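Service request form, structural biology core

Requester: graduate student, group of Dr. S.
Request type: structure prediction, single chain
Budget code: on file
Notes: please return the result as structure tokens.

Sequence provided:
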Amino acid sequence: MRISPQTVDASPPPAVVKEGNDWCRLISTSYAYHRAFIAGEIGEPKQYVELIHLLRSARPEAEIEVYVNSHGGQMDSALQIINAIRTCKAPVTTVLDGMAYSAGGLIFLSAGRHRVEPFASLMCHLAFNLIGGKTTEVKACADFREANFRRIASDLYSGFLTAKEMKLLLHGEDLWFDRDEIVRRLGKKVTA
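Core staff response, request fulfilled:
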């Protein structure tokens, strides 16, 4: 499925917006203000091409909000979105609007500014993988993916998880956070 960009009038937001992609949708209310919605399972990278393009080509004076309501999904897509958020020339605010679990949580935590809606929750856990092949290949792949995820987790969860929680996470524990705890941990990075 592809993302359907839509331009709407900047005076009050429309009550109804035409149907778009089920997972990610872009809405531009002006040349300088854009909203993207990542909802549901994070699918294949091709579903996020227009979002990636928006983030990679935004001018510094633009403002971008990325709303996240996802139980997670494909790590390759999440990492591409995270890279685009982190290299975006415009300020990006991620908005936790529902749940941000697994890869959804990684995307939410990747921005420099955040907004957390009243009934939001976040879950962090070890990456889930399915690997097939010869025993030596499976072991080599699993070892690589574990080391790679440790690197990713130590970067993206730094400042959010404590050292003890990071240890629990890397030993397979799921960590759950409600809105109040998320806001407390993010501190000054949370906007009104």
